[in-house]
Structures are given as C-alpha cells and as structure tokens.
Automatic annotation (TrEMBL):
Species of provenance: Rotaria sordida
Molecular-function GO terms, alphabetical: translation release factor activity
Start and end residues of each eRF1/Pelota-like N-terminal domain: 5-144
InterPro entries: eRF1_1_sf, eRF1_Pelota-like_N, Peptide_chain-rel_eRF1/aRF1
Name of protein: Eukaryotic peptide chain release factor subunit 1
C-alpha cells in the first residue's frame, strides 16, 4: 500500500516537473536577462554566491540600460533565493535556480520569475548562464530517463508447488522468459 502511494506521489511530482519545464521553456526575455543556475549537492554554496556577486559587478558594463537592469534584478533574486539555503539544507539532488524578467508579448508587460527546482536525479555539474531563454534540456532529459527506467525494470518470479519449481523473468520489452524449471516427484 505504501509503495503504491509513493509511486503515485512520484508520478505526480514528475507531472508537476514536466509542466513547470514546459512553462519555463516557453518563456523569453529581453536580451540575455534570464539566468539559469545549477548547483550540485556536493558543490560549495559559497562559490556560487561569490560567482553571483562577481557577475552582478560585471553586469554594470552592459550597454543596454533595460538589459542591465533586468540582469541585475535576476542576479539579485538568485542571491536572495540562495540565502534560503545552507550547505546542510541543500536538496540531496542539488538545486536549479531560474530567475529573470520575462517579456509578456501580448500585453507588453514584464513579469519577474524566480523559481527553485529540485531535479529528479543528482546533478553532476554546475552551470551559470544568462540567455534569452531558460536552460531546461537537462531536466527534460532526466524526465525521459526516469520514464525509460520504468520501462527497463525486470521482475523475477519463483513458483514453488508440489510438482517442482519454476524460475522466470518478466521484462517489458522481451516478455516472460522461463529461466529454469525443476520437476520433482514427492512421495504422497
């Protein structure tokens, strides 16, 4: 019963993550004002904080006043989000930060986005990127990999009765394979 509930929770989390990724992938910013930051669990949070401080100082040399303002706003939001975490409270799979000011083309408005996501699988590398869009391809790949892992699961079956024993494997791609059959004659 508990396993079924955990599987349901896992499926709901994957669905939420997929929807969030679709939403983030559709957003576009003015200039290179959308910031994506990947923080693996084993990395030092102080290094990431220092990087953001350095990037904030460098952003003052951006020529376009609107892009400069948007980048500085995004970096400030990212620094604020990182302050909520310590090395001990960082999620076990790492953390992905998405911050920036997004153009809403239909109504000529700008919307501030600041989002933290814990990925499905542990992150292996860190990343800091300012682009016109958020970097979400690695999260999409994690969702695809998790679905493929479900399809790759194999189950073993052992059937024991009065006539013998049967060892079999159930594989989603190959079906059922009988590995070994042992027959015995037991006295009545």
């Amino acid at each position: 019963m508990a396993t079924a509930m955990q599987n349901d929770d896992s499926a709901i989390e994957k669905w939420k993550l997929r929807r969030t990724i679709q939403y983030l992938s559709s957003l576009r910013g003015h200039g290179t004002s959308l910031v994506t930051i990947i923080v693996p669990a084993q990395s030092q949070l102080s290094q990431t904080t220092r990087l953001l401080t350095d990037e904030y100082a460098l952003s003052s040399s951006i020529r376009s006043p609107q892009t400069r303002h948007n980048v500085q706003q995004a970096l400030s939001a990212a620094q604020g989000r990182l302050r909520l975490y310590t090395q001990n409270t960082l999620p076990k799979n790492g953390l992905v930060l998405y911050t920036g000011i997004v153009d809403d083309g239909e109504q000529n408005r700008e919307t501030k986005i600041s989002m933290c996501i814990e990925p499905l699988q542990p992150l292996q590398r860190d990343l800091y990127r300012c682009e016109t869009h958020f970097i979400t391809d690695f999260l999409q790949q994690q969702i695809i990999d998790s679905v493929n892992d479900l399809n790759r699961r194999r189950y073993g079956i052992i059937v024991i009765d009065g006539n013998g024993t049967l060892f079999a494997r159930i594989d989603p791609q190959q079906g059922t394979t009988i590995l070994k059959r042992i027959q015995v004659s037991l006295p009545k």
